[in-house]
C-alpha cells in the first residue's frame, strides 16, 4: 500500500514531507485519544460499584459523593493539551511549506480544463517558453513554482507524493510549489469534482535527473523531425486538415489552443489525461471514438477513413 501512487502518507519531496509528518502525528494523536476513551469507557462499564445503602424507609440516595468531578478536569486538561499541540504543529507546518527552501528553478503555469491539464514552462529554457499537456517533467532536487489557473470550473492540483492540494479557481491564480527528491513518475489527479470525467483527469509528474531533464527540454524545443515515411507525411496532412483547429504542434502551422498541445505527443506515457496507455491500439481506438473511452469529453468523433486514421497514428507516433 505504501508505494501506491496516491498513498499520501509516504511522500518524496520538501513540499510534501512536513505535511506527511503532521499527518502521521495527528493520526497517532487521534488513535491515542480513541484508545484512551475506549479503555476508560470499558473500565467504567465493567468495574464493580460499592453497594448503595438505603435509608430506613428503603429509599436509595439520588446523589453520589466521591471523586468523579476530578476526572472531568483531568480529561479537559489532556484534551486541551492535545488540541494545543495539534494547532501549533499545524501552523508551523503551514509556514514551513508556504515557500520553497531555495529559489525555484522555473515556473510552471498549469491550467485546468474539463478534463485535462495544460502546462506552460516559463523560464525553464533560455528565452523559449513552451506548452505541453498532461505529463510534466521536473528536475530532481529543485523546487518548481506552480501558477495554477482554470479555464472553466474549479479543479484541484493534487500530486500527493509531491505536495498538498491546491485548487485551480476560475478568475484567479493560486501559487504553489513542488519538489521531487528522487527520480520517478509521480501520479497526480484532479482533487476537486469538476464534472463527468473528473476521475479521468490525471497527470504524470516525471522527475528526471538534472541531465535527463536537460535532454527532455532539448527534445521539447526541437522542431518535428522530417517525415520518415509516406504514411507519416500523409498523417501530417490529415492532422493539418482535421485536427489543427483545436490542437497545436510546434514547428507546424497547427496552432489550435482548444485541446491539448500535441508537440512531442509520442513522448508521453498516457492518452487523454491518464485515461489510457499511449500505444498504437489505444491511440487508434481514441481517434476512432473519443467518446467511447471518455464520454462527455470535448473531442468530437472526427470521421476518418481507416487509411487516414492509420496515417494519423503513424504521424502522432513520430512526434517523439
Ligand atoms: Cu478537474 Cu476534477
| Ligand catalogue | dinuclear copper ion
Distance between the termini: 34 Å
The unreliable regions are none
Q: Oligomerization state of this entry?
A: single chain
Average pLDDT over all residues: 91
Shape: elongated
Tell me roughly what share of residues is in helical segments. Answer: 25-40%
- Could you spell the SSE succession in H and E letters? HHEEEEEEEEEEHHEEHHH
The value of Rg in angstroms is 28 Å
What is the element layout, followed by pairings?
Elements lengths: L16 H30 L21 H29 L10 E7 L2 E7 L7 E4 L1 E5 L4 E7 L4 E4 L7 E3 L5 E5 L5 E7 L11 E7 L1 H12 L8 H13 L27 E2 L4 E2 L2 H9 L1 H4 L12 H12 L3
Parallel strand pairs: 1-5, 4-10
Antiparallel strand pairs: 1-2, 2-3, 5-8, 6-7, 6-9, 9-10, 11-12
Helix pairs in contact: 1-2, 4-7, 5-7
The structure holds dinuclear copper ion (CUA).
The site of dinuclear copper ion has 9 residues, from loops.
Amino acid at each position: 500500500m505504501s508505494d501506491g501512487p496516491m498513498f499520501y502518507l509516504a511522500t518524496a519531496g520538501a513540499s510534501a514531507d512536513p505535511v506527511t509528518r503532521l499527518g502521521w502525528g495527528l493520526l497517532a494523536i487521534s488513535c491515542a485519544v480513541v484508545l484512551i476513551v475506549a479503555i476508560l469507557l470499558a473500565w467504567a462499564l465493567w468495574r464493580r460499584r460499592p453497594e448503595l445503602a438505603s435509608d430506613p424507609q428503603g429509599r436509595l440516595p439520588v446523589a453520589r459523593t466521591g471523586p468523579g468531578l476530578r476526572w472531568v478536569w483531568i480529561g479537559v486538561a489532556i484534551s486541551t493539551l492535545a488540541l494545543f499541540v495539534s494547532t501549533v504543529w499545524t501552523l508551523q507546518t503551514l509556514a514551513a511549506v508556504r515557500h520553497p527552501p531555495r529559489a525555484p528553478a522555473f515556473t510552471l503555469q498549469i491550467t485546468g480544463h474539463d478534463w485535462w491539464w495544460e502546462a506552460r514552462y516559463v523560464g525553464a529554457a533560455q528565452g523559449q517558453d513552451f506548452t505541453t499537456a498532461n505529463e510534466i517533467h521536473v528536475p530532481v532536487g529543485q523546487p518548481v513554482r506552480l501558477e495554477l489557473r482554470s479555464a472553466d470550473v474549479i479543479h484541484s492540483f493534487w500530486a500527493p507524493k509531491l505536495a498538498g492540494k491546491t485548487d485551480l479557481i476560475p478568475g484567479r491564480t493560486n501559487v504553489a510549489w513542488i519538489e521531487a527528491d528522487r527520480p520517478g513518475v509521480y501520479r497526480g489527479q484532479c482533487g476537486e469534482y469538476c464534472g463527468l470525467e473528473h476521475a479521468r483527469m490525471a497527470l504524470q509528474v516525471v522527475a528526471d535527473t538534472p541531465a535527463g531533464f536537460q535532454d527532455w527540454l532539448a527534445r521539447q524545443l526541437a522542431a518535428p523531425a522530417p517525415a520518415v515515411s509516406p504514411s507519416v507525411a500523409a498523417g501530417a496532412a490529415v492532422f493539418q486538415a482535421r485536427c489543427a483547429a483545436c490542437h497545436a504542434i510546434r514547428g507546424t502551422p497547427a496552432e489550435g489552443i482548444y485541446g491539448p498541445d500535441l508537440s512531442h505527443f509520442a513522448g508521453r506515457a498516457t492518452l487523454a489525461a491518464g485515461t489510457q496507455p499511449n500505444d498504437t491500439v489505444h491511440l487508434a481506438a481514441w481517434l476512432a471514438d473519443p467518446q467511447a473511452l471518455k464520454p462527455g469529453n470535448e473531442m468530437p468523433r472526427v470521421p476518418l477513413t481507416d487509411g487516414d486514421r492509420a496515417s494519423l497514428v503513424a504521424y502522432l507516433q513520430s512526434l517523439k
